[in-house]
Prior knowledge:
The chain contains 8 helices and 13 strands. By secondary structure, it is an alpha/beta fold.
Amino acid sequence: MIGTVVAAYGKRFQVELIDKKRISCVTRGKKTDLACGDVVTIKFTDKHEGVVESTLPRKTLLYRSNAFKSKMLAANVTQIIIVLATQPSFYEALLNRCLIAAEAANITALIVLNKCDLADNDDAKQKLKLYTDLGYRVLSLSAKEDISTLRPYLQNEASILVGQSGMGKSTIINALLPNEDVRTREVSHVLDSGKHTTTAAHLYHLDEHSQLIDSPGLQEFGLHHLSTDELEHAFIEFRPYLGKCRFNNCKHLQEPDCAITSAVDHHKIAPERLAIYKMLRLEIQQQSSL
Ligand SMILES: Nc1nc2c(ncn2[C@@H]2O[C@H](COP(=O)(O)OP(=O)(O)OP(=O)(O)O)[C@@H](O)[C@H]2O)c(=O)[nH]1
Ligand SMILES: [Zn+2]
């Protein structure tokens, strides 16, 4: 039997079969490397329970990680939607981490600035200009007032919504799927206890060809799973300059005749982005020397 993982709660998974029936599954032994969006083969162990036998090859896999372990956020997504809000102010470093993770996983990114109904949104919009200039799509909206402008971006995509707590992810999901209070509904008839609600990822069907994965609120988004090479390529505006430094093992930190540093001096690369690169580079280096 083939199915799709539509919810992941630590070691338990909910798998949707082709006939839309959902069953609760565990993995064999200690293996838990499954994510929401994974396509799996399962074997029934009971009427409503099963065990995952294998995972089909993934088109994409989105990770985040700290120094000690990495965590799969979602499999087979085509798009990451980074939800920000005009208030409370968002962490720009977190936005960058999401963008870098998306580039490294070959997933397109869409930045959504929510709560644009509130006055005082100039600051947030100003901050996002840098990302529009880089070529990222930025959509300003108010999930409370009107979600319709987001819908075309979701069509024929498997999207994951990410964002720090309080930006409005639940509001967006509920506006897109108005028939039920999705965040609370799902858990009750899937598991006996709702205690994992906040840590679970869920996949919803918007239509036959469009899915949306809701992930728990992110406060940190480590990128320790990236190599230094992947990291520098994930800064899209660095790409034309890579390989042009004096040293071919240049780290773009403080080496002489660095093409990246020189591009910053010539206003071709924003100094904020180089600063973020340096911070992430040092984080990754520390990791490899642990
Ligand atoms: N003014 C305004 N408030 C909004 C909008 N969208 C969400 N909010 C409010 O912002 C707060 C946080 O929204 P949630 O949807 O719960 O945020 P969340 O991102 O799901 O947060 P977590 O559940 O902690 O991950 C709530 O009080 C919402 O009512 C909006 O478009 N405009
Ligand atoms: Zn360099």
